[in-house]
Amino acid sequence: MTLTQHMDVCLMDSSRPSTAQVFLNRGSFSRRPFSVAMFPPAKVMRDGLLEKRSSGLLQLWKKKRCVLTEEGLRLHNCKAGGDAPSLAWSSKAKELRFERMATVDCVEYKRGLVYFTVVMATGKEIDFRCPQDGAVWNAEIALALVRYKNLQAVQTGRNRHLSTTYLGSTGEDEEL
User: Fold this and answer.
1) Dihedrals φ, ψ of 30, to 5°?
2) What is the mean pLDDT of each run of 10 residues along the chain (176 residues)?
3) Model's pTM, two decimal places?
4) What is the pLDDT of residue 140?
5) At a CB cut-off of 8 Å and minimum separation 6, what does 60 contact?
6) What pLDDT score does 135 carry?
7) CA distance readout (Å), 75 to 26, 48, 163
8) Which of 52, 57, 94, 97 has its CA 20 to 30 A from that of 162?
9) Closest Cα to residue 40, out of 86, 82, 83, 97?
10) How far apart (Å, rounded) are the C-alpha atoms in residues 5 and 1?
11) For residues 54 and 147, what is the distance between their CA atoms, to the nearest angstrom?
């Protein structure tokens, strides 16, 4: 086994794969797409259809099967079969992880549809729309994002408390 093959195997065995994970390939860096099977198992909070605005020149609305989990939002492409879109979904998915999300905002209601924007930590904005009937996706995504961020804050606080307790620091002479 060559060094490059060994590094590929080690990186593929990572316990936290992400869509931006980079693999070393013959001395240069390249991306490899992830299949759904490579995503770590997470509790599904909601599964259904959303429309996402494409980032191309025409900015067309494309149907996506979205799966909201505790870790983020997975977007599956619709496999087009002929003129009408089929009910089959691709096995490849793009994942918008909460750790990389900043907010869900720009909610607008027009002609029975809800338009909203997911803002990533990098500043990138991703536009979605869904029917206004029933539970609305933007509220569920926003609540899941807040829940995730709160959990991260609690874990960070615990880790700080444990590290100061372990090191024997009282925190009285430390400056922030």
Assistant:
1) -145, 160
2) 39 38 34 46 88 93 94 87 53 90 91 94 95 86 95 89 70 55
3) 0.64
4) 94
5) 53, 54
6) 73
7) 31, 10, 38
8) 97
9) 97
10) 6
11) 28
pLDDT score recorded for residue 78: 79
DSSP codes joined into one string, 12-31: HT-SS--TT-EEEETTEEEE
- Give the integer Cα–Cα distance in Å for 9 and 23: 10
Cα dihedral value 98, 140, 105, 99, nearest 10? -10
Confidence at residue 169, expressed as pLDDT on a 0 to 100 scale: 54
Please state the three-class secondary structure of the chain as a single string: CCHHHHHHHHHHCCCCCCCCCEEEECCEEEECCCEHHHCCCCCEEEEEEEEEECCCCCCCEEEEEEEEECCEEEEEEEEECCCCEEEEEEEEEEEEEHHHEEEEEEEEEECCEEEEEEEECCCCEEEEEEECCCCCHHHHHHHHHHHHHHHHHHHHHHHHHHHHHHHCCCCCCCCC
pLDDT at 128: 96
According to the model, what pLDDT value does residue 24 have? Answer: 30
Report strand pairing: 44-53 vs 125-131: antiparallel
Q: Which two tokens stand for residue 38?
A: 């490579």
Three-point CA angle 173, 175, 176, nearest 5° = 145
Length of the chain counted residue by residue: 176
